[in-house]
């Protein structure tokens, strides 16, 4: 799904994906940080 701009953005809701409409390489530029937990990758706001 990442290939089409969909990413997991909610750590406590595994089936939840958010359409961000960009590639993974651009997510840091959008203010998101990559978190890996239990073999899942989440992109959450970098606060």
Q: What's this entry about, in short?
A:
The protein is an all-beta fold. Strand 3 and strand 4 form a beta hairpin. Helix content is 0%, strand content 34%.
Describe the structure.
The chain is built from no helices and four strands. It is an all-beta fold. It has a domain at 1-32. The strands form two sheets. Strands 1-2 form a two-stranded antiparallel sheet. It has a two-stranded antiparallel ribbon with strand order 3-4.
Which helices and strands occur, and which strands form pairs?
Layout lengths: L5 E2 L10 E2 L12 E6 L2 E6 L2
Q: Kindly state the mean pLDDT as a whole number?
A: 96
Q: Helix share of residues?
A: under 10%
Strand content: 25-35%
| Helix vs. strand class | mainly beta
Distance between the termini: 25 Å
Sheet with the most strands, sense and barrel status = 2 strands, antiparallel
Low-pLDDT ranges: none
Strand order across the biggest sheet? Answer: 1-2
Radius of gyration: 10 Å
SSE order in H/E notation?
Answer: EEEE
How many distinct beta strands? Answer: 4
Q: What best-fitting shape do the alpha-carbon axes yield?
A: globular
Helical element count? 0
């Amino acid at each position: 799904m990442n290939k089409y701009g969909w990413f997991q953005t909610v750590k406590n809701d595994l089936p939840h994906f958010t359409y961000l409409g960009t590639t993974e390489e651009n997510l840091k530029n959008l203010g998101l940080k990559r978190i890996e937990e239990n073999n899942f990758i989440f992109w959450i706001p970098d606060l």
